[in-house]
Amino acid sequence: MRIRAAVSAGLLVVLGGPASAQTAPDKPPPPPPVAAPPDAALYIIAPRSGSRVTSPVTVQFGLRNMGVTQAGSSAKNAGHHHLLVDVREPVAGGEPLPADKNHLHFGGGQTETRLDLPNGPHTLQLVLGDALHRPFVPSVQSQKIQITVVSAQALRKKRRPIRHRRG
C-alpha cells in the first residue's frame, strides 16, 4: 500500500498533478494602444451642428492627416470610424468601443451613413478606432454636434418665406 501511495505521489509531482492540467494557459496581453499623429483631426462634414433635418439623416465623416481602413487592419496611421449617437459618457481610453444602437461601427472603411432617427434633439460624435476598435492615443474624435430631427412638413413650414400684403 505504501509503495502505491509513493508511486502515485511521485507521478503527481512529475506530471504536474491534475490541478495544473485544468488551468488555462495565460492569454497574451493585448497590444499597447496605437499612437495617432499629433495633427490628426476627425470631424463631421454633414449635417452641421444646430441643423434641423429630416430622417433618414445622411452623416458624412471627415478625417485629416490619417487614413481610413477596415477593422482588423494594422495599417500605419489609419483606422475606422465609430459614430456615437446620443452618448453622454466620455469614451474610455484603451478599451474597445461597445457595439450597440448608440455606438455604431463602420469596420468596412465607410465614410458616410444614413440614420433613421426619431423626431427630436440628438447628438452625434465620431471616434476613430484602431484594428481592435480601441480609440487611438491621443483619442482622435470629432466635436459632438447637436441636430434636431423634424418632420418634412415642419421643415417646409420653416423654409417658407413670410409674405406681407401691401394695402
Automatic annotation (TrEMBL):
The keyword Signal applies. Keywords: Signal. Residues 26-36 have a biased composition (Pro residues). Pfam families: DUF4399. Residues 59-149 form the DUF4399 domain. Residues 19-38 are annotated as: Disordered. It comes from the Bacteria. InterPro entries: DUF4399. Residues 1-21 form the signal peptide. This is DUF4399 domain-containing protein. The lineage of its organism: Bacteria, Pseudomonadati, Pseudomonadota, Alphaproteobacteria, Hyphomicrobiales.
